[in-house]
Amino acid sequence: MTTNKQFSYAGMTLTRGSTNYDAKHSWLVKNLIRNKSLGVLYGMPDSFKSFTTIDLACSIATGRKYHGEITQQGAVVYIAAEGQQGISRRIKAWERTNNLLTNDLWVLGSSMPLNTPKAQNDFIELIKQLEIAKKVKVELIVIDTLARCMEGDENSPSDMGKFVRACDFIRGATNSSILCVHHSGKDINKGARGSNALVASIDFEFKMKRIKGDIAVMLINTKQKDADTAPPITIQYKQVDLGITCEEGLPITSLANLSQHAPDTRNGISNIIDIINKHPLKSMTRHELNQALFPSTSKIQDSDRQKIKRALDTLIKKKLVTIEKKGVNSTKADIISIIH
């Protein structure tokens, strides 16, 4: 269709000038994952990459908020290329912790070379048939891990480019977002492993940073195309008894996110110390504190922000808390910690 603001020919559409400049972002997980986007979550071994990805996937499948951020509920297809049983137990731990069933989370317990035409077409057809049979809309596809689902050399720009184009083709055909779980190199500060063609092509990226001496990590948003990066999220994990035993009769356990169950009631500004003390790490980002104080409010009023600021200033003067600023001015990522 040709209009004053666009021109179409042979299946291609041109838009005039700044047309659509005011289009609003549509989020799968508010401020973290946009609809129909492609992203990567990477980290070192034992940085809880899969646990955190499962946490996100379960939140989307059930429509539960993720660390206070609204999710768009929809079905999730999880490619567990490193084995299904371990993933299934981690999902069960999430279900027991949250008292919810993840009926719209579907696990494929084998790898697929997604950058080959046959695998792409078979996988797209699998998604379409699932949506018809179960009357659901798949909103997120998880590829865990990228290396197990890619044919070729991840260090090759050409091979990595083929993988990215395959992901683009799949998400276009399914109208879904794709999240790839990936490894970092030996130096996590140098980013995800392999060719830079990956990070140059994705819409969002998360880095997992393990907190020493604890079963906890920081989820750090290192890239967010056309939007501000989200503040870091501190995630504390706990052991969960799955209600089954091994051959020796010992309980089988897994891990689940404890941080999701931080105080979710508006207790007032005077309870800042209590709220931070209840956090497993005795510290929170400014964003996390705001959400704990005002969980039912999507946007905090300026008057309430001033109250928080005055309360924090008082606590600093009394040497009860410290604030580690992440910029010249106050930001959501500032770390507020109890002084012991």
Tally of strands? 16
Terminal residue distance? 66 Å
Strand content: 25-35%
Mean pLDDT over all positions: 90
Detailed description of the structure:
The chain is of the alpha/beta class. The chain has 2 domains: 27-257, 3-Layer(aba) Sandwich (Rossmann fold); 262-338, Arc Repressor Mutant, subunit A (Orthogonal Bundle). Helix content is 30%, strand content 27%. The chain is built from 8 helices and 16 strands. The strands form 4 sheets. The chain has a 9-stranded mixed sheet with strand order 7-6-8-9-5-10-11-12-13, with helices on both faces. Strand 3 and strand 4 form a beta hairpin. Helix 1 (49-62) packs across helix 2 (84-98) and helix 3 (117-134) packs parallel to helix 4. The longest helix is centred in the middle third of the chain and has 18 residues, at 117-134. The radius of gyration is 22 Å and the shape is globular. Mean pLDDT is 90; it is low at 262-268. It comes from Vibrio ziniensis. Pfam families: AAA_25. This is AAA family ATPase.
Write out key terms for the chains shown:
alpha/beta, single chain, Arc Repressor Mutant, subunit A, about 350 residues, 9-stranded mixed beta sheet, Rossmann fold, 16 strands, 3-stranded antiparallel beta sheet
